[in-house]
Amino acid sequence: MAFGLQREELQHWKAAVEDGEIAFLTHFWYDPRFPDVKTVTKVGCSNLSKLEAWGRRYGLKKEWIDHHNGYPHFDLMGTKQSEILKSENKMDQLEKLIKKGRNH
C-alpha cells in the first residue's frame, strides 16, 4: 500500500516511464511481507531493454521487473534503495520522505 504520494508526482512518473525514460518515484509503503520496510522507490521505464541494462549496473535481475498496470519497474527497498539513490543523485526523494515522516 502506497501513501505520502501526490497525484502530480505519480502522473509525472507515469509520463516519464511511458516516454522511455528511467524514472524514479519514492514513497511511503507498507507490505506485511516486509514489516521493517517503510519506503520503496519504483524505477521504471517502458523500454524494457533499457530498464534491464540499467538494472544490471546495480546487480538487479530482469526477472525482478514488476509489470504492474503496464508500468514496468524495479522496486528498491532497504540498503539497495539508498545505495542506488545515492549513486543516481536522487537521495533527495528519500530525504524528503524522512523529513515528512518526522513532522507527522
Automatic annotation (TrEMBL):
Residues 77-104 form a coiled coil. Keywords: Coiled coil. This is YneQ. It comes from the Bacteria. The keyword Coiled coil applies. It comes from Fictibacillus solisalsi.
